[in-house]
Amino acid sequence: MSYYITTPIFYVNAQPHLGHAYTSIIADTISRYKRITGNTVRFQTGTDEHGDKIAEAAGQSGVSPKEYADRISAMFRETWPTLDIAPDHFIRTTDQEHIRTVQSILTKVHDQGDIYFSEYTGLYCKGCERFLTAKELVDGNCPDHLKPPAEIAEQNYFFRMSRYQDWLIDHIKTNPDFIQPERYRNEVLSFLKEPLEDLCISRPTSRLTWGIPLPFDDKFVTYVWFDALINYLTGLGYPDQPDFDEYWPVAEHVIAKDILKPHAIYWPTMLKSLGLPPFRRLHVHGYWNIDGIKMSKSIGNVVGPAQLVEQYGVDATRYFLLREMTFGLDSSFSDEVMITRQNADLSNDLGNLFSRSLTMVANFCEGRVPQTGPLTEEDQALADAATTMITSFSAHMEAFEFNRALQAIWQVISLANKYIVTNAPWELAKDPALRPRLETVLYTLLETLRLITLCLHPIMPGTAARMSSSLGIITPPDLLSQSNWGGTIPATAVNTGPALFPRLKKQATAEPRQEGTPATKKAPGKKDSKPTSPPPSSEGLITFDQFRQTELRVAEIIGAERIAKSDRLLKLTVKAPEERIIVAGIAEHYAPEELPGRKVIIVANLKPTKLMGVESHGMVLAAKEGDRLVLSAVAADIAPGSRVA
Ligand code: MSP
After folding, report:
1. Confidence tier at 409 by pLDDT (50, 70, 90)
2. Most ligand 1 atoms within 8 A of CB, residue of 5, 125, 259, 400 to mutate
3. What is the CA angle 59-62-65, rounded to 5?
4. In this structure, how many other beta carbons lie within 10 angstroms of the beta carbon of residue 407?
């Protein structure tokens, strides 16, 4: 069977973060699960690069939208392998092939009369990149971006979405799992109780040029959502490539609740107009908050994937995200819960079961899988639990209930740990007459571990590969053919290998992250003692409180002069925002004339000190490389006195 799974294509106005990583881990996990259950899978992700937001972000960075998009898109592409996320195709909306496909689709929909030109006045939210209805507003604001939308009146092209409303309602009603979980299906159906408005699908080039030109009117570019949704077709080579025929009928999209409406309403009606069947299923998850607070750049609590991987490792991160969130509901990330889970579930439960079992095989059976004798009732209970685990794991994976799929595995891990205690193989090993019993107990444990490992492949690919290698398993995982009891082959060499997961030290206090706290720098175990593993050194680190004592501000240099008898020092007059004098040791690197007008970063709360007779009120930050010295700067214009956090 074929299977096609996609993530949203992410806007390139922000760097990858935990939220993007979560959706992508879901899609990756499902694609791995589908592969080991005999499917041919295509997994697509990518970046959404046109529109107001990107043009604006590029402008702020002083580069062209394309340069900006290239840079951030590359970050997304390079981040995914660090989380073992392995898409088959990474699409960009600036790809020539995509642009051609969008234009040919526009022509087709236009030719058949589903696109018309009209005047429109509406409430436009730039954050959502769409017009909102008055009903959607909360206290006059967009509920997601907490800002009032702008009233925009202009002539534009419209897609006759309303024509397909009845068809869409009927499709959702007759296909109960078209949108899941059910709460989102209900949300869409309730929205569809009101008459659907047509969708404005263009922006005049007088307002926005960063988009795909309409093939039938070059004074307009395509609305970003019309452009973006089509990526799911372009990536398959629509309309005439074989991948399209193979994968479109089995397409499933994973998104978060923020983009439900474009996916559940715009997209199926666009497809209907094109004469294509809708996607098969839409999977909608909730939002990750950080320490209970919405993740946001302005709050400064954005958690980046690279730091998670550095602090916890790829597999612990994947495990945590899949285990902690109930698919469909919001969840909160915190270092404290993360550390607790890593220690309890991974290091204790799984890690101990694994290392104890293999150590006993090494010690009592010379590192080779023993023979199994007849199973006792207790052995059989564990064997039954392990085989039932596969069925229940699979059912939950099919239903996108990742936390329950993992619970099913951990129930067996817990049973197996108890089995070790009640059977005490170390006692059996003392009596040669009990040798057959010892061997059966150890075989039962190894076989249970084999089945656990099989389930872990899609969740924690690296750990599952290490476990397989220790267990002497050389065949690639296949959940269909390898899930019967008895697959472990006696006499196979096994080895203990290094511990699967290190124990992490808890932080002394788990403070919520706040402005300026790099969410990612609070490495576990760094504060109060040496960590057990991958040990980042604690030397030289400062606490957030220590850092907070340093007040950094943007300052504009308004005057600069040499200080008599000093080759090194310049006397700078800066605005920060009050005027002050700072003496800086930069005379060998900068001439006074070239400084006024520059904006630099200063330490604003240093005690005044006299240098060559001039009192200095602060310090200018600069970077040194050998003999070179380069002043600090800010990436875009910002008022003098702005705090640097
Ligand atoms: N470009 C559009 C999508 C077009 S798809 C045809 C877009 N991009 S986005 O960069 O804003 O990504 C939104 C998606 O990122 C969400 O739907 C979700 O997959 C992920 N997340 C962003 N923040 C998130 C959380 N805080 N929590 C969970 N996922 C979130 O919308």
Report:
1. very high
2. 259
3. 55
4. 14
Catalytic residue among 145, 147, 219, 530: 145
Q: Is the CB of 226 under 6 A from ligand 1?
A: no
Cβ neighbour number for residue 37 with a 10 Å cutoff:
19
- Assess whether the C-beta atom of 256 lies below 6 angstroms from ligand 1: yes
Give the nearest ligand 1 atom to 258 CA. Answer: 17
What is the model's pTM?
A: 0.79
- 138: DSSP letter: B
- Say yes or no: CB of residue 379 within 6 Å of ligand 1: no
| Residue 20 annotated among the catalytic residues of the structure | yes
Cβ–ligand 1 contact at 10 (below 6 Å): yes
- Catalytic residue (choose from 173, 219, 297, 418): 297
Pocket test for ligand 1, best of 5, 47, 48 (most atoms within 8 A of CB): 48
The whole-number pLDDT of residue 539 equals 54
Which token pair is 121? 């006045």
For 360-391, the pLDDT digits (tens) are 999 999 999 999 999 999 999 999 999 999 99
What pLDDT sits at residue 514?
39
Residue 207: what pLDDT?
Answer: 87
Looking at ligand 1, which residue's alpha carbon is closest to its atom 15?
Answer: 20
Spell out the domains of the chain, with CATH numbers in brackets.
2-314 (3.40.50.620), 334-471 (1.10.730.10), 544-631 (2.40.50.140)
Quote the ligand 1 centre to 19 CA distance (angstroms).
7
Could you tell me if the CB of 22 is within 6 A of ligand 1? yes
Nearest to 425 by CA among 441, 410, 412: 441
pLDDT above 70 as % of the chain: 94
> Residue 273 and residue 168: Cα distance in Å, rounded?
11
For tokens 């229940």, the residue is 392
Distances in Å between the Cα of 543 and the Cα atoms of 310, 356, 405 are 19, 38, 39
Average pLDDT, the chain: 92
**What is the reported pLDDT for 449?**
98
Question: Which residues partner with 582 through β-bridges?
Answer: 572
Indicate which atom in ligand 1 lies nearest the CA of residue 13: 10
The reported pLDDT for the residue numbered 537 is 42
Nearest to 282 by CA among 251, 246, 258: 251
Name the token pair of 223: 């609305």
Question: Does residue 49 surpass a pLDDT of 90?
Answer: yes
Q: Which two tokens stand for residue 506?
A: 């808890």
